[in-house]
Design brief:
Layout (H helix, E strand, L loop, with lengths): L1 H29 L26 E5 L6 E6 L3 H18 L4 H17 L1 H12 L3 H26 L3 E3 L3 H4 L2 E9 L2 E5 L5 H14 L3 E5 L8 H14 L7 E4 L3 H8 L6 E5 L2 H12 L5 E4 L4 E5 L5 H13 L9 E7 H16 L26 H16 L3 E4 L20 E4 L6 H4 L6 E7 L2 H8 L4 E2 L3 E3 L3 H10 L6 E2 L4 H4 L8 E2 L2 E2 L4 H7 L1 E9 L19 H13 L3 H19 L2
Parallel strand pairs: 5-6, 5-8, 6-7, 8-9, 10-11, 10-16, 11-14, 13-14, 16-17
Antiparallel strand pairs: 1-2, 3-4, 4-20, 9-19, 12-13, 15-18
């Protein structure tokens, strides 16, 4: 009995220790910093007053209710220049900070987001008309994961990278790549996720040692004051200059002043191809490099062997989340003809059941107040959606749900921006709505007959950002994915590549170039410097044939060396070795 008791006791303590180790590892993954690391290493400074500006007024209203949020003036060209002067000064100190110091600031930022989740979501809901669920997912969850990834893995991505020199030519040398801050990053982000878009770009810019000056969208300016107060307070609390991060209100002229200013060292722009061209044009005056993410027309492909119910559910989310106002929205849903009618009927019932209305900016509300879909954000974008849908219907498309802009009533009616969840079928691949980005709550159902057929249609637009493929045959899905022109591919899901922060985000064709997210995104915000040095602390004298005045036999030395190293013929290598030795001896006699 005593032996059994001892055995049970041993098993208990073993399980307790193993369980404790697992729990500790989980805690370490969730919270990568020990407590002492969170303490500021510098005395706090005053955050100072938020800057005020004197340009054209920017009025913010809720697109769901039309209610007034705030009004402030935009930044003039002179005020943009003044902001950049402050950023340049702030970056001089910040650029010398260790990765640990930079990560500590991001940790504070992550904790602020966690502690103010409902406030952040409420700000976004008022600013954009999205639902609280969409705000929690798009503004909070993705932001926290971005920050966690940078805190945990950012320094590894920017460590010096050893490179291999050609051994026989430079056996005594070593080579590496080092990463340094650019200086000041100019950032222009859209209105669809006003909190996340700003924090995501700013966090990567400052982690790489840069200052960040952001021109926020005039269509989501209501969140700007909240965000700038947050950044300034967190920086000041750790003793850093609050001018390191600045958020500028304004219109296109403010953005143009930012892009054309020579104090900007690199630009990140997220928006439309048309505006992206203007950004490139303004940046070209100073040869300022740019990263452009210019939207998409992503295909979501459902093969006949897909898990049907899963494909339906994900397609609905891919189209209607955030009222379709996502660069990676599932803008075209291609369904294999064998299951097309069933898919269409199933989706139609679900779209007709969606609840739309003005979202309540609170986390806990009654069932009667809950809505699946909120408002759109930009009045001009609703006009574009309405025109594209009307054109498709006029040219033979079937409207199975929605399809008509509702009329708003009340004193704020002109500021209310709704478009109903819409389902279109019987579409011609050459219709405008199939070719052009909709950026709204419209599902386009298009049948296809074969893999070759869907590849041809998927690649038929000038956009190439992302793609989703649904199939239980993974080999088939992978083979199909390799033929789709896109910067990202997700199999049996939608949009996950953005949440996986170790992956680069970006597209090709008119969807833009350059990357953000992942190690590639951090390196985009860094000057990449090639370094060559001595492998050993012994300096060798340069060979005579490389010295000036140049020996007459030097060309033959190089010729024989090239043949010896690179010729595929053993006889030529042997002859070259003889010639090399002969000519090396000749160079020493001159």
């Amino acid at each position: 009995m005593e032996a059994e008791a001892d055995s049970c006791s041993w098993c208990f303590w073993t399980l307790l220790i193993v369980g404790g180790i697992i729990v500790w590892q989980l805690i370490s993954w969730i919270n990568p910093f020990p407590r002492g690391y969170k303490k500021p290493s510098r005395p706090a400074v005053r955050p100072g007053e938020q800057p005020s500006y004197s340009g054209r007024p920017v009025v913010s209203r809720s697109p769901a209710t039309g209610e007034f949020i705030n009004e402030e003036n935009g930044a003039t060209r002179e005020e943009v220049d003044a902001a950049l002067n402050k950023a340049v000064e702030a970056q001089k100190d910040w650029g010398k900070a260790s990765f640990e110091e930079r990560a500590a600031f991001l940790y504070d930022l992550m904790q602020y987001v966690v502690d103010h989740q409902e406030e952040i979501c409420s700000v976004s809901v008022l600013d954009t008309g999205k639902t609280m669920m969409e705000a929690y997912y798009g503004e909070v969850l993705t932001t926290c994961e971005k920050l966690r990834h940078l805190i945990t893995y950012g320094a590894d991505a920017l460590k010096p990278e050893s490179r291999r020199p050609p051994f026989l030519l430079m056996f005594n040398k070593s080579a590496r790549v080092e990463y340094y801050p650019f200086g000041v990053i100019g950032i222009i982000v859209p209105w669809n996720y006003p909190v996340h878009n700003v924090i995501s770009a700013v966090s990567a810019a400052v982690f790489t040692g840069n200052a960040a000056v952001v021109k926020v969208s005039e269509w989501s300016n209501g969140s700007r004051i909240f965000l700038e107060r947050m950044f300034r307070g967190l920086l000041a609390n750790r003793g850093w200059n609050p001018d390191l991060i600045q958020l500028l209100p304004g219109y296109g002229d403010t953005g143009a002043a930012l892009c054309s200013n020579p104090k900007i060292n690199k630009i990140l722009f997220i928006g439309s191809p048309q505006t992206g061209k203007l950004v490139m044009s303004a940046a070209s005056a100073n040869l300022t490099p740019v990263i452009l993410e210019l939207g998409g027309k992503d295909p979501l492909i459902v093969l006949d062997d897909a898990e049907f119910d899963h494909a339906v559910d994900v397609a609905l989310r891919g189209v209607f989340i955030n009222q379709g106002q996502n660069c990676i929205a599932a803008e075209r849903v291609y369904v294999q003809r064998k299951i097309y009618d069933k898919f269409k009927d199933t989706v139609q019932k679900k779209v007709l059941a969606l609840r739309q209305g003005a979202p309540v900016p609170k986390s806990v509300i009654s069932k009667e107040q809950f809505v699946d879909c909120g408002a759109m954000t930009m009045p001009g974008q609703v006009d574009i959606v309405d025109r594209l849908v009307a054109d498709a219907i006029a040219n033979g498309a079937s409207c199975l749900a929605g399809g008509k802009r509702p009329r708003a009533d009340g004193e704020n009616a002109e500021h209310i921006v709704f478009y109903p969840p819409t389902l279109l079928a019987d579409l011609d691949p050459d219709m405008n709505i199939v070719k052009n980005e909709v950026f709204g709550p419209v599902m386009l159902l298009i049948p296809f007959d074969s893999d070759d057929h869907v590849v041809e249609m998927a690649n038929s637009t000038p956009y190439a950002l992302g793609c989703s493929i649904f199939s239980t045959n993974y080999s088939r899905a992978e083979a199909l994915g390799r033929r789709i022109q896109s910067g990202m591919l997700t199999i049996n899901d939608f949009g996950l590549s953005y949440l996986i922060q170790s992956l680069p985000f970006g597209g090709c064709k008119v969807s833009g170039f350059g990357k953000f997210n992942g190690p590639e995104g951090l390196k985009e915000f860094s000057i990449q410097k090639s370094v060559v040095t001595d492998r050993f602390p012994v300096r060798t004298k340069a060979p005579r044939f490389t010295q000036y005045p140049v020996p007459a036999a030097a060309p033959m030395v190089v010729q024989n060396a090239v043949s010896l190293l690179y010729s595929g013929s053993l006889s030529k290598k042997a002859n070259s070795l003889v010639g090399l030795v002969t000519n090396l001896i000749a160079t020493t006699k001159e």
